[in-house]
Amino acid sequence: MSNMDSNLADALSEVARLQWAKWDWQSEEALSLSQHLNDAQDVAFYLWDEWLPESLRQVLTDEFGSKGQARAWVAFYAGCHDIGKASYAFSVKVPELYDRVCSYGLGAATTLSSKELRGAPHGAVGAYALWVWLVENHGFDDDAADTYVAPIGGHHGKFPDENLLHSAEDFVEELEDEKWQQIRFEFFDVMATRAGLTATYVEQRREQGLSAPTQMLLTGIVVMADWLASNTDLFPLSMFDASSTSRSDDAIDRLNLPDPWDPRPESSADDLFRARFDLPAGATPYPVQLDAVKLTGEVDKPGLLLLEAPTGEGKTEAALAAAEVLAAKFGCGGVQVALPTCATSNAMFSRVLKWLDRAIAEDQLASAMLTHSRAQFNDEFQGLKFPSQSFSAIYDEEYGANSKEPAVEAHWWLRSRKTAALADFTVGTIDQFLFSALQSKHVMLRHLGLAGKVLILDEVHAADIYMQQYLYRALEWCGAYGVPVIALSATLPPDTRFHLMEAYASGIAQLENAQISNNILGELEIAKNERAYPLLTFVNADGVSIRKPEASSRRQVVSLEYCDDSSVVSMLTEELRDGGCAVVVCNTVQRAQTLYDEICADGSFTDDEVFLLHSRFAAADRRDKEEELVAKYGKSGVRPRRGVVVSTQIVEQSLDLDFDIMFSDFAPSDLLIQRAGRLHRHSRKNRPERLQAPRLVLFGVTEIRDSDAPEFVSGSKRIYGTALLMRTASALMGRKQFISPDHVAGIVRETYDTEAQCPVSWRKDWDEAVKEQQANGEKLAEKAKRSLGPSPNEKDMSRWFQHGSAEEFRGQSQVRDIEESIEVVLVEQRGSELYSLPWLEKRGGESLSDANGVDDELAREVAKCTISLPYWQVGGVDEFIAELERFGSPSWQLSSWLKGLLPLPLNESGECHVNGVSFSYDMKYGLRSIREKESR
Fold this sequence. Notes:
Elements: H1 14-17, E1 20-24, E2 29-32, H2 33-51, H3 54-64, H4 67-80, H5 88-91, H6 95-102, H7 114-118, H8 122-138, H9 142-146, H10 150-153, H11 162-175, H12 179-195, H13 199-203, H14 212-229, H15 244-255, H16 269-276, H17 287-298, E3 303-308, H18 315-330, E4 334-339, H19 342-359, E5 366-371, H20 379-382, E6 391-392, E7 408-409, E8 425-429, H21 430-434, H22 443-451, E9 453-457, H23 465-481, E10 485-489, H24 494-511, H25 518-528, E11 535-540, E12 543-547, E13 556-562, H26 568-575, E14 580-585, H27 589-602, E15 610-613, H28 619-633, E16 642-647, E17 661-665, H29 669-676, E18 695-699, H30 714-720, H31 722-732, E19 737-740, H32 744-752, H33 763-785, H34 808-815, E20 821-830, E21 833-835, H35 856-863, E22 866-870, H36 877-885, E23 902-906, E24 911-914, E25 917-922, E26 926-931, H37 932-935
Parallel strand pairs: 3-10, 4-8, 4-9, 5-7, 5-8, 6-7, 9-10, 13-18, 14-16, 14-17, 15-16, 17-18, 20-23
Antiparallel strand pairs: 1-2, 3-11, 11-12, 13-19, 20-21, 20-22, 24-25, 25-26
Helix pairs in contact: 2-4, 2-14, 2-15, 3-4, 4-12, 8-11, 8-12, 14-22, 17-18, 23-24, 23-33, 24-25, 30-31, 31-32, 31-33
Family: In the central section; belongs to the CRISPR-associated helicase Cas3 family.
Organism: Corynebacterium amycolatum
Keywords: Antiviral defense, ATP-binding, Helicase, Hydrolase, Metal-binding, Nuclease, Nucleotide-binding
């Protein structure tokens, strides 16, 4: 594995061998520094030789000039990451270990304070020592050497800033005995030799700084190697250097990470779709699917593919098939799929697993992870079995008992929040991708996981101005790494299409320390203004390619109608008098609850015929309701004779639902078109006579006419902005219908055209709305930039933490501009005791007051009942939290599932009064609240 047959200790002086790296205070066992560096370097050799995908290795090979040199630098950094522990500041932390080296004259110039010792953390000391070693021993230019210290200084997840490095320099040069630096140089020399990094290799780079992508990936590999080498189950503590080869081989055998994916797509697009997806007999792939696979098969360099097509054209299958082609062509080791919400991620996870069942050869094993904040509650992720193969997933549980070797697993080492991104296949919310552009600790692990994959972004149009700042920056990094990206959308505004391509192309250019060429900029402008639909646009280092697939036979004429808010219920009753399935989409939870209440109160429909879905259901209840919704209105659903679904925007994203007629709050045109994709989605012969053609009925807006500007309900204006709603109204004015796909691109283009003219009588309102939109957009963009990571051309890695770092549990509030909220868990209170909600299918109505703690199964079921309360809904935040903390039980703090959660105790009628707010909850309405002074 290594380039030396003997272990590291044989090449070191006696005093170097006495340096320590790890200490267990309970067992009083230690691990020598030489052994730990030996272990980490062996892990790095293994990662390079067997685990890193070819596409990622190529990034480093391009930097260093050959695979041999790249491998040597990777192993060198892993073998040197903790050299800063050979320092007085670190060694004195365990006096009995420090005493062993005192006789060698290793000390400090004077007695040091704890503050002075804290000013020299081992990462910073190691980084400074490397800088001196490069400059003084190998003649490096100072500025070039600056770019080589990040993998050592940042191996604990945060790159050191200039102040910390200066502090370490002062400590080394002024306070510490100079013999410490000699020991560190000894380690550098020996580790370089063991890595195969010759003096010639090193000195070839005297004036060449490392690019930011290389620094990021090297740091990610070092972090991974360090964590694995620090796992005492794999590498037991020992102050005596064991045989390197046997120790490392045994550890890696026990680790057993899957090898990179080896995709083997069929040679033709038709054959690929037949092999991977359940095409009905005699069916052929849609034109957009075939063109996506053919286009990706023709390109010579990785790039960004934008796939715009109507709902129901099989964009997901097209993306997965194209991803397999791209992965095979460019040596990618997996796929990352990013979606707007947890719900859409859960649905996609099932589809990806089914695809993997066929995409992974029988002789392969791959790891798959569901990566969002509630993945631990997804039963399919926890252990799903398919008829043809067994899929075992682990979060905190054992592998499912099955004698057959699984083809896909959630590997035990990859199950944590920090390492999940390193799995071969990941499905999660888009936040997980956007975190790669967020100033956050251990961001280098996200980059390491991303750089070797194909990335699929679903519903990419859903990103608002705030999220777009992170999206564009993350795409720059994808371009710099050469990550193939496939972005899906029913519709994209021209400016958004341009900025997505520009961001990726900018990343490609920055890798060459250049700007996007005028030729490519011109091609991007042409692509921006392309009016074809469906549309495939591909950008890479060679330029822009455009494909205009034929539309499938699913040409759909959707009639456009309007009604007042007060007429929705009566019109629903009339339209469904002979049966049929309708969906009503509201822009806010409150409007959905109010309208649901009005429909139920009208009496024209039974309780079983009306269904409400929104975000203020407990997580477990929402999951159950989504499953019920798909079971009734999905492709294979058992449809009721008559049914009404009242929902928020949940139904417009990724859920495969089919309705006969839709009522919708007025919204931007691209979202209305997206929602309309749930109309007549599947071929059915039993639709009621009056609902044979798809109809979209819009409400929440006054009559749209030339004579005066339309007005919109306040909730819609707050979410989408008046200007965008007015532009949509102008684009739709006079239309009685739209045809998909024929009219889609034109309507969206007109809506987002900032030069579009409005009727004269709208001018005053229009100008005010546009001015407000511009101000809000600038404010949001500026707000996002506070935590935005730097671009790939910024070689100073400390810029990643110039505003501090955000831990991931706070990260979502920084990659999304969402309301601040408090997460509570719903429980039932009987007297002074708390119980799980009585309607839970598993462990419902059980006591949570056991002094010995709540058992894991019950705690997990209770933890599924969380719900987020916006700050505005709870009155004073501090007072609200303080009041809920009174209901906390000591037994909760003993549970990993419940610790830190605030209980919202409902009485047996489902009501609760906290901090002047009355809450009520049931399975029909979800959570409702009213300030008690408002109810008087």
